[in-house]
Amino acid sequence: MIKNINKNHIVKTIHQILDDNKAQDIVVIDLKDKSSIADFMIVASGTSSRHIQAISENTSQKLKSLGIEDCRIEGKESDDWKLIDAIEVIIHIFHPEKRSSYNLEKMWEDILPKQQITV
Which helix (H) or strand (E) holds 57? Predict the structure, then answer.
């Protein structure tokens, strides 16, 4: 659980961490009151399996240092996708080809109004 941290602030912080780590095409999807899985989903791309791994590890470490202790990485065996579960925020980091095949933004776009998806 995110303790004593404004969720909008943590989303902006995550966006900045991803940007600092050269993640590409960062998209924030507001899921509040729309899904029980999280309040926000962030989708980004990495350029290679090493880049995706580095982004996920750096992001997880920074979130833990901010007090999100239950943060964990899923997909450790995968070379082209990682998921960081930060409880109220879920972060997907994909290889661009894998991202286009899953097309999470399109899936959520069909469910949510456009103003809840930001780039």
Answer: helix 49-65
Q: Domain 7-118, CATH 3.40.720.10 — does that match? A: no
* Cα-based distances in Å from 7 to 78, 86, 118: 28, 11, 15
Task: Output the pTM of the full model.
Answer: 0.84
* Spans of all domains in the chain: 7-118
Segment 96-117, tens digit of pLDDT: 999 888 888 777 766 655 555 4
Q: Which of 14, 51, 25, 37 has the alpha carbon at shortest distance from 103?
A: 25
- Angle (CA) 50 62 71, round 5°: 90
pLDDT tens track for 14-56: 999 999 999 999 999 988 877 788 889 999 999 999 999 999 9
- Do residues 6 and 16 make contact, with C-beta atoms less than 8 angstroms apart? no
